[in-house]
Write a sequence for this structure.
């Protein structure tokens, strides 16, 4: 009786060649056995079927992503190539535009206010100016206070909002952007300022996006699975939980540089990579203030026209066990509600 060990950590092409050689060797041995009467035809058929199943399993990509699979058919632009060009987004290229430090929005309703701030945050605009003709300043300021931790705003950014009383009929919103948002702005727009540390963060996130495409070039879900696993593997949940909002653990820098983060860090790192891929996404936060011990943030991703929840924080485990890294991966709204009945994933319905 022979025992064959499946070579998990070999390159895919090497595994296929090995299996073909194994198939030929087994076929010769078994056919000789049949000829001399020591092996029956049924035994031969069963052995070949088992080996064929192993080859199919190897070719289907069911192994864990221990190594990057290089696919020569996939052309992925480097970060330097993208920054030198007129488009951004590895999967879905979009036109790069000139960076705008301040933008004005006309608002007449609470929904207008939410849409305007959400658009400004997405563009990394430092000065979001809301212009209104109805009600007074106090009315709009109260609406802003009421909505500060909406999911459209990322939740953890609310400490950065500062209002400006200087101009009648205007409400100024000045976000305090963390390094992940600065990296996204630099990636999307021409000529924004960027620090050396933020550039290193963008390079690290871009590398992860490149690797995800190489691992699963024709399957977005496979890319997202790889990103989820890598973020879980490189990060440990902060213990103790840091105080304050402006700390690395609440930004992507905690994940990529320190391997130490809370939920805001996990979610921000994931969002940065998704933006580099060009996949539509946002972060969601439960109905708590970001400095509250019960506050939680995760990712919302649009794939094939539908939205799904991914919570890398809750997918993480102390043993880096890949089999337990997908409990909160690609869940619909209903699936998330059934899986978690607590308030941790309670969130405002987004305004589309």
């Amino acid at each position: 009786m022979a025992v064959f060990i499946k070579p998990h950590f070999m390159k895919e092409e090497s595994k296929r060649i090995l299996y073909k050689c194994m198939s030929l060797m087994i076929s010769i041995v078994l056919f000789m056995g049949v000829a001399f009467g020591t092996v029956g035809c049924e035994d031969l058929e069963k052995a070949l079927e088992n080996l064929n199943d192993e080859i199919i399993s190897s070719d289907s990509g069911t192994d864990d992503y221990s190594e990057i699979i290089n696919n020569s058919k996939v052309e992925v632009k480097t970060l330097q190539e993208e920054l030198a060009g007129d488009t951004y987004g590895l999967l879905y290229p979009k036109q790069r535009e000139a960076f705008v430090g301040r933008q004005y929005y006309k608002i007449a309703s609470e929904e207008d206010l939410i849409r305007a701030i959400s658009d400004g945050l997405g563009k990394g605009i430092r000065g979001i100016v809301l212009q209104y003709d109805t009600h007074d300043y106090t009315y709009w300021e109260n609406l802003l206070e009421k909505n500060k931790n909406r999911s459209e705003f990322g939740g953890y950014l609310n400490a950065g909002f500062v209002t400006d009383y200087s101009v009648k009929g205007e409400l100024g919103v000045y976000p305090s952007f963390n390094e992940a948002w600065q990296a996204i702005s630099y990636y999307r727009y021409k000529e924004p300022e960027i620090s050396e540390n933020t550039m290193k963060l963008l390079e690290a996130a871009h590398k992860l996006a490149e690797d995800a495409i190489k691992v699963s070039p024709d399957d977005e879900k496979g890319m997202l699975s790889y990103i989820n696993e890598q973020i879980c593997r490189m990060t440990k949940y902060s213990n103790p939980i840091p105080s304050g909002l402006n700390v690395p653990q609440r930004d992507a820098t905690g994940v990529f540089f320190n391997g130490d983060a809370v939920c805001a860090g996990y979610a921000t790192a994931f969002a940065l990579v998704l933006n580099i891929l060009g996949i539509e996404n946002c972060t969601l936060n439960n109905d708590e203030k970001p400095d509250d011990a019960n506050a939680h943030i995760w990712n919302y991703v649009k794939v094939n026209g539908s939205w799904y929840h991914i919570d890398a924080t809750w997918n993480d485990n102390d043993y880096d066990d890949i089999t337990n890294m997908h409990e909160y991966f690609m869940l619909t709204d209903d699936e998330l509600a059934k899986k978690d009945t607590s308030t941790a994933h309670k969130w405002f319905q987004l305004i589309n």
